[in-house]
Design goal:
Shape: elongated
Strand order of the largest sheet: 6-5-1-2-3-4-7
Distance between the termini: 128 Å
Number of helices: 21
Radius of gyration: 34 Å
Order of helices and strands: HHHHHHHHEEEHEHEHEHHHHHHHHHEH
Strand content: 5-15%
Largest sheet: 7 strands, mixed
Structural class: alpha/beta
Length: about 575
């Protein structure tokens, strides 16, 4: 068998010179020998069998020509940057439309889309274009601009003041965020007979996600994570299954709430800082969701040397270290563990109470600290550098003319004001005064429970209508008060910084909060009357939950023993009376 003939390599310049030489009268064979270009290649180009423009690689040529393909590449790049990425079908249909233009001469059949062969050849010719999984973002994220993010960096430095020195210590720069972990097995490639559908039966709902919060610092250290369950009372099996340092919580929805986050900081994170002897104040970067920022939390953090910095709204996919470099790695390993678990446990799935122990193994793997450090560096949080941010993630938008934008804002404000006045006309005067008084005080609604949702709806309407100019009944009191800005304003108009530390000295060691857990001081949604303080507890470490369950069990046993003793006394009382009567006779 004869060996496969090797292709001859030649430069685009040599090819061009050979063709020009032939055009000036040089025979094809002599030009091929002189410029080291295959004779067949030259003949094919002269005859029109192959296009004049090639990319210097054997077999990689474009029937559309270099100019049109470069135009397509630019169109694909611009569309992706603006948040409207081009799909495979979109590209092929666009080429088909180009093909309908008679000024475009190529080998495609008129009105027929190019085949997948052309599609993959196009990708090979242009390695700068890659197939990627698109990430969907909401409109608010799409409104983020590079200028706004750079201003956020400058605002943080300005508002930190003397505490800006903390940003130079990686152990004192933290990031917190939560993510959901699905228990059901996801679709994966399996081996099965040909021609048959394959299913994986699951006892877990594919919609059930267990929320877990992670906290990391810029040196690559993980603080105690928090897993939340949807329970009114946390079962003992949850506490017994989790690592001793792991934080566990219970909420009505299974999601993070202001109460659970407050107790996590007080009962878990603060004791951890004390045990690790981390100098305070520290800075914690987190998103400005209402479940993270509350007046009660701000007061506790201020007293304990924790400076909370809200990341720029709707930019966590750019600025949050956990989002950028950690969560993807953790969830990839989580999928692997789920598959291994089914193999090792005779097809049984991971139980939700096994989640903390598995995640604990994942975050202890060797590569995880490197991922954390990379996340802080890639987001510009540590070192604190606005130039380190990957601004290519921002969707580019053409800004509307200034006058048009001003007219749109005025029109929207007038419409909001009309709606607000209509709503106020439907509210009883006394209730309207109560609403306004609560807004001035800056606290949560403490009136009739039935009016809670209505109050927050009205509050949001007020600030959406008047921001940045406060309404008359709020202007004086709001400007002179020290209440938390985010607690009053709607989340969509939050300022990036919510709290500033007032000391640079290390804090003294507080009493261990686990001896007497911190209880959320604000109102709860539950109408159930708690029998004791532990019933109102939302979050603490798993070891503390074990102690609480043991205390309850011990108390229950004492009550049962006392009940049994009373029963024994009641049963023996007739005998004692009978014996006394007999002796008396």
């Amino acid at each position: 068998m004869s060996p496969k003939k090797k292709g001859t390599s030649y430069s685009q310049e040599n090819l061009h010179q050979a063709l020009m030489s032939i055009k000036n009268g040089t025979p094809v064979g002599r030009a091929a020998k002189q410029f080291h270009v295959p004779r067949t290649t030259l003949r094919n180009k002269i005859s029109g069998k192959s296009p004049m423009e090639t990319y210097g690689k054997r077999g990689y040529y474009s029937v559309l020509g270099r100019e049109i393909e470069e135009h397509l590449v630019k169109w694909i790049s611009d569309a992706a940057n603006r948040g409207f990425p081009v799909t495979k079908d979109g590209l092929l249909m666009s080429v088909q439309e180009l093909n309908k233009d008679h000024s475009v001469t190529n080998n495609f059949k008129i009105r027929i889309k190019p085949s997948k062969v052309w599609y993959y050849a196009f990708l090979r010719r242009h390695p700068e274009i890659r197939r990627k999984q698109a990430e969907y973002v909401n409109k608010a994220r799409g409104s983020v601009t590079e200028e706004k993010i750079r201003k956020w960096f400058r605002d943080v430095l300005q508002q930190l003041g003397d505490d800006v020195a903390i940003l130079a210590h990686p152990q004192r720069v933290w990031n917190m965020d939560e993510s959901g972990f699905n228990l059901a097995p996801t679709g994966e490639l399996v081996l099965a007979p040909a021609g048959r559908h394959v299913y994986i039966e699951s006892r877990n709902s594919d919609k059930e996600n267990i929320t877990t919060l992670f906290c990391v610092n810029a040196s690559g250290c993980f603080g105690p994570p928090l897993t939340l369950y949807k329970y009114a009372r946390l079962p003992a099996v949850a506490a017994l299954s989790a690592p001793a340092h792991w934080a566990l919580g219970k909420t009505e929805s299974g999601w993070m709430t202001a109460a659970s986050f407050y107790e996590y900081i007080g009962n878990v994170f603060l004791p951890f800082l004390n045990e690790q002897k981390i100098q305070r104040p520290i800075i914690v970067f987190l998103d400005g969701h209402k479940s993270h920022l509350s007046l009660q939390l701000s007061e506790m953090c201020r007293d304990n040397g924790i400076i909370l910095v809200a990341l720029y709204p709707n930019a966590t996919h750019i600025l949050q270290p956990l989002d950028v470099a950690v969560f993807k790695a953790i969830k990839s390993r989580w999928k692997t563990y789920k598959r291994q678990w089914r193999i090792e446990h005779d097809g049984n799935e991971v139980n939700k109470f096994d989640l903390p122990s598995i995640l604990n193994k994942i975050i202890q793997e060797d590569q995880m600290p490197n991922n954390v450090v990379s996340g802080f560096r890639a987001t510009g949080i540590f070192p604190f550098n606005e130039n380190a941010v990957d601004y290519r993630k921002i969707i580019q938008r053409s800004p509307p003319p200034a006058q048009l934008l001003e007219n749109m804002q005025n029109e929207a404000q007038n419409m909001n004001l009309t709606h607000l006045m209509h709503v106020e006309s439907k509210i009883y005067p006394q209730k309207l005064e109560d609403f306004r008084a609560t807004m001035i005080e800056g606290g949560p609604w403490s009136g009739d429970v039935a009016d809670t949702s209505f109050f927050y709806f009205y509050r949001d309407m007020v600030f959406e209508t008047y921001h940045p100019n406060l309404p008359p009944f709020l202007t004086e009191s709001f400007v002179s008060s020290d209440i938390l800005f985010e607690e009053v304003l709607d989340e969509s108009i939050l300022e990036p910084l919510e709290l500033n530390g007032n000391t640079s000295e290390p804090h003294s060691q507080e009493k261990d909060p686990l001896a007497l857990p911190m209880i959320w001081p604000g109102p709860t949604k539950s109408n159930r009357k708690e029998k004791n303080e532990t019933e109102r507890l939302f979050v603490t470490t798993s070891q503390k939950w074990v102690d609480i369950h043991q205390e309850k069990q011990t108390e229950k046993q004492k009550k049962e023993m006392a009940k049994a003793e009373r029963k024994r006394i009641r049963e023996e009382k007739p005998k004692t009376v009978a014996m006394a009567r007999k002796q008396k006779k």
